[in-house]
Design a protein that fits this description.
By secondary structure, the chain is mainly alpha-helical. The chain has 2 domains: about 70 residues, Arc Repressor Mutant, subunit A, CATH 1.10.10.60; about 140 residues, Orthogonal Bundle (Tetracycline Repressor, domain 2), CATH 1.10.357. Helices cover about 65% and strands about 0% of the residues. It is built from 11 helices and no strands. Helix 9 packs across helix 10. The chain is elongated.
């Protein structure tokens, strides 16, 4: 794409705004390079335009990152009447915190933990694994952005480590203990089992999408494998 083809509109002009292109390129750049190393010039290079063109859409690196966050959440606007402006990374942290709190997987896990063990724990585990796969697949762009940038931005690290990954690990380990599958004294412990099962599901739900050696895997097979591995890792056969 040439700079001329990408030329940004004057304020208020309709029909030629390419905000979504900038948002998608920004998300890709931050996921590849992290927050500190990614610059506006990297996004311009991805799109084959000048740095000045990108500044017609965002007025700073922080605004570019916020646009990437909105893209990851599926909320990037189709047009911008003026360059996007934010104050630091605080607005991005607020939006990510809100999205994390609204994730429906939490209510499902809370409901499971509030009940006693069923007769068929394996069936319950299959249900949890399926919903976990769907959540990780649905949230893959946000998780990849968190994975790459969270520990370079203290506000995001707190959200990711405590409100997202930490909470998920705690609840899965609590489920393992509540079903009598392991505890803190067993080898492997409930926490280790939960982490291992989660990582297997996470790779199949999101990471494999960017792995060229896994391009042959179908979505159906990946989901079925994730569920099977999760159940086999946590629930004894028989």
């Amino acid at each position: 794409m040439t700079a001329a083809a990408f030329s940004a509109p004057a304020r208020g002009r309709r029909g030629v705004d390419r905000t979504r292109d900038v948002a998608a390129a920004a998300l890709g750049a931050f996921c590849d390079g992290g927050y500190r190393l990614t610059q506006i010039a990297h996004v311009a290079e991805r799109l084959g335009v000048s740095v000045g063109t990108i500044y017609r859409y965002v007025d700073s690196k922080e605004a570019l990152f916020h646009l990437a966050v909105l893209q990851a959440l599926g909320e990037a606007p189709e047009t911008l009447d003026a360059p996007l402006k934010v104050t630091g990374t605080g607005e991005s942290a607020v939006r990510l915190r809100e999205a994390a709190a609204a994730e429906p997987l939490w209510s499902r896990l809370d409901a499971v933990l509030a009940t006693s063990a069923p007769d068929d724990v394996a069936a319950e585990a299959r249900g949890i694994a399926g919903e976990l796969y769907e959540a990780l697949s649905r949230c893959a762009p946000v998780i990849l952005l968190f994975d790459r940038c969270a520990h370079e931005i203290p506000e995001l690290a707190e959200i990711f480590d405590r409100q997202v990954r930490g909470k998920l690990m705690t609840e899965l380990a609590a489920w393992v203990v509540s079903r009598g599958l392991a505890d803190a004294t067993t080898t492997p412990s409930a926490a280790v089992l939960a982490r291992g099962a989660l990582e297997a599901v996470a790779w199949l739900a999101k990471t494999r999408r960017g792995d060229p050696t896994a391009a042959w895997m179908t979505e159906e097979d990946a989901r079925a494998a994730a569920v099977r591995i999760f159940v086999n890792a946590l629930v004894p056969a028989g």
